[in-house]
Amino acid sequence: MERLTSFEALGRLRDKINASRDPNKPSITVCAGTGCKGCGADAVVAAFKQELETKGLTEKIEFRETGCHGFCERGTLVVIRPKKIFYQTVMPADIPEIVEKTVLGDEIIDRLLYVDPQNGQKIVHEHDVPFYKNQKRIIFGNNGVMDPTKIDDYIALGGYAGLAKALSSMQPEEIIDEVKKSKLRGRGGGGFPAGRKWESCRKAPGTQRYVICNADEGDPGAYMDRSLLEGNPHSVIEGMIIGAYAIGSSQGYIYVRNEYPLAVANARIALDQARAYGLLGDNIFGTEFSFDIQINRGGGAFVCGESTALMASLEGLPGEPRAKFIHTVEQGLNNKPTNLNNVETWANVPLIIRDGADAYLKIGTAGSPGTKIFSLVGKIANTGLVEVPMGITLREIVYNIGGGIPNGKRFKAVQTGGPSGGCIPEKHLDLPVDFDKLAEVGSMMGSGGMIVMDENTCMVDIAKYFTAFLADESCGKCTPCREGVAQMRDVLQKICDGQGGPGDIEFIEELAETISAASLCALGQTAANPVLTTIRFFRDEYKTHIEEKRCPAGVCKALITYRIIEDKCTACGACKRVCPSAAIEGAKKVAHKILVDKCIKCGACIESCKFDAIVKE
Question: Whose CB has fewer CB within 10 Å in the chain, the N or C terminal residue?
Fold first, then answer.
């Protein structure tokens, strides 16, 4: 790699890269993100390479391993370009046929096509798959077309053009003004205006300033930051360099979960390549501006996603938050002015600077411009990562992108914002998704977790699950969070165990108010959200647990019983054979019975019965 010593050199390099590439050349792109690797992507990649080598096609057909494409449950994903033919659940045994029939020929392999669950239609092209068709992938889209370990792929797509523009024609204050004008809000949870934070950090007294990327993603079911850092690390790095120039920083850190080995590996490769081209280090682009980035791996504590706890961890101290009577933009890491944004926020910056704030403002809503990447999981047909414009409704996400609720079940609720987010019921499905609208119904954007629940979900159990998670993850520094969240968990457990009594709901509400008002950091301050929203929208379900000692969803084991309907029982013995506790009695041609005192309520009997003779009450 030849060091780029001028802005013109970057343009010449981009032209050279693009001139050497034929857009009409057949190419194979394989998703090699963590999700697809879990589905066997490494074996698929190896099979493709072997097949191309065996047939002497390595020079004639371009092969590229990319980052996460988003449709993780359908992995391993393969896209044949430029035809954009989309194959899902690809296995190594499929490779010879794909190469022979689709890459070299014009034949489509039906069994590998995506089938729309709503109409049964097979879809050939990637852009026609509803999961992708209804998104707006301005940040995440390049994941599917570039190799994250090759900086030239990023440069060919316009990478580092925003940095070149910032350093060549903008003063630091102009960059901050442009970010302020774009109304970019932090994508890590709080939604604080990024430009205002940058401005405060630049104005803070002192000569040394730090820039930090928060990649300590800990929400259950959330993996947006991981996949973005894995699949397009240069977009994050470029954003950090622009931010560092704007606030006057010479040192940056990426604080990433140690459980994200591929993100760490790809980010390290990207940093090394950026340094080799002179995009990091001393005298970037031949200017007087110098800046470098170091990777630090977190130990896995959920609370280290909180800014002050993260900075304490970076300093080698226990990851505990501190009171924010002094803001981190004034005294953060090492008591120096520090600007912290999350992975997705930084990835938005190059786009804003390159294309301008006016273009960015055309996407999303007036108060929440741009897009947001969500981790769409739970009881939904299509799970994965989705990028949508702010202002899209929950209904559009669940049904147009997610494909609706599988198995004919009814939608019940969706939780947004991770374990500290609220549960939103069906009556609010047409709610526009942005920072302010979600807050109005007691939820929040958070980092982007979105968990869909169907009619078989117990909302009391859901509240208990997330409260238990937060109780375990509390650092224990402040009493309201340490003791209050644990008490809230214990009361919810008591209700689920059939031991709830009068006043329990009111006690939880009062306790939640105290925890929210008195906790030191956002973990405790928002811990009550899942509890309060489930009480607000599903209060009758709590009452049924307490007053009738019954779980309407049939989830809480202490409140359900299994019964065999004699008229439907054929005495086949299937349930008796699978019962692990010998709780079913009956002979041939005699209707079976469940011994309630022995039943452990595992549900194996219901799954084994072909005659719907067993019910859960």
Answer: C
Burial of 590 (0-12, 13-18, 19+ CB in 10 A): exposed
Please name every residue paired with 215 in a beta bridge, in sequence order, or none if there are none: 256
Give residues with Cβ within 8 angstroms of 234, minimum separation 6: 148, 151, 154, 159, 160, 270, 274
| Tens-place pLDDT, residues 374-397 | 999 999 999 999 999 999 999 999
Q: Name the token pair of 15.
A: 């032209």
Tokens encoding 45: 């990649």
The token duo for 608 is 């084994």
Domain assignment of residue 153, yes or no: no
In order of 15, 207, 276, the CA distances from 284 in angstroms are 20, 19, 11
We report the CATH number of the domain holding residue 439 as 3.10.20.600
Co-location of 246 and 112 in the same domain:
no
Q: Which is nearest to 531 in space by CA: 514, 550, 549, 552? A: 514
pLDDT digits (tens, 9 = 90+) for 500-547: 999 999 999 999 999 999 988 888 888 889 999 999 999 999 999 999
- 580 token code pair: 């692990």
Does residue 553 form part of some domain?
no
Question: What is the span of the domain harbouring residue 235?
Answer: 159-361
* Last residue of one domain, picked from the residues 547, 580, 598: 547
